[in-house]
Amino acid sequence: MSRAGKIVTIISGNRFAQKFYECVNRKTAELMGIGSGGDVCSSGEMAVVDRMLKLLPAPYCIFDVGANTGQFLNLVMSKMAAGEYSIHCFEPSPQAFAELSRGKRANNASVILNPVGLGKEVGEVILYYNEPGSQIASLTKRRLDHLGVDFSQSQTVRIDTLDHYCEVNGVRRIDLMKVDVEGHELDVLQAGGHRMFEAGAVKLVIFEFGGCNIDTRTFFQDFFYFFKNVRMDLFRITPSGYLYPIIQYKEIFEQFRTTNFLAVHGSLSKLEILQ
Question: Are 133 and 115 in contact (CB under 8 A)?
Fold first, then answer.
């Protein structure tokens, strides 16, 4: 180690310096999209919708898996005119679904509202939450004591699978799929949707990775190799809308702070995606 390096190491050996580095690390990571994926307006997801509009022909088939009260749905409706798209929304929480179904959404022929979730198999499961209609409701009873969140409430909800739903409803292609199911994304994609993905029928996937994956014991490595096996390239979505290519797996990507990623089918041009 150089003399300058030794001096920096010595200076860093105190609580103040470590807190400072922690703060810098957090803020820098947020500019990279790590920890900034919790809000649809600031996560960069709008830029993905814009790219879909440029790359793929209308009408668009969009899936909103884990629609909650319609945050992503509102974004889609603001970007496209009726008739240009159909969006299939899935929300198993009765309280969240009631809010999702209100107003112009219920009377929009382009919006298909489904009071079920998507998962690894068709049936009934337990949904855990801190409050009715919660944005962090999960099929796993999460341990959030460190955040002062009580996750003890639960209810039985219905679950379908991506493959079964598409077969029953005649869906042959999905242009954009947003998946936010609090740690159970791989259940939706890999276990319940393997036929659609193996057929190359899904072109773009936005998915979330973060703290909920600690509770479900799923890792970014699992996502990386799943998408690699179905010929899809991965990008981290940054708040600016820039898509950072994930060329190969690295352990540093295991960042358990809410981050959005985009998977792009290999039939689409990487250069056009990045523009």
Answer: no
**29-47 confidence digits (pLDDT tens):** 898 899 887 777 777 888 8
Beta carbons within 10 angstroms of residue 57's beta carbon: 7
Instruction: State residue 271's pLDDT score.
Output: 61
Task: Determine the residue type at 266.
Answer: G
Hey, what are 77's tokens? Answer: 């409706």
| Predicted structure pTM score | 0.92
Write down the CATH superfamily of domain 32-115+170-274: Vaccinia Virus protein VP39 (3.40.50.150)
- 3-state secondary structure labels for all residues of the chain: CCHHHHHHHHHCCCHHHHHHHHHHHHHHHHHCCCCCCCCCCCCCHHHHHHHHHHHCCCCEEEEEECCCCCHHHHHHHHHCCCCCEEEEEECCCHHHHHHHCCHHHCCCCCEEEECCEECCCCEEEEEEECCCCCCCCECCCCCCHHHCCCCCEEEEEEEECHHHHHHHHCCCCEEEEEECCCCCHHHHHHHCCHHHHHCCCEEEEEEEECCHHHHHCCCHHHHHHHHHHCCEEEEEECCCCCEEEECCCCHHHCCCCCEEEEEEECCCCHHHHHC
d(CA 137, CA 79): 28
* Segments of the chain scoring below 50 in pLDDT: none
Q: Which residue has the tokens 């649809």?
A: 40
Number of Cβ atoms within 10 Å of the Cβ of 215: 18
CA gap 224, 222 in Å, rounded: 6
Could you tell me which of 235, 129, 239, 222 has the C-alpha nearest to residue 182? 129
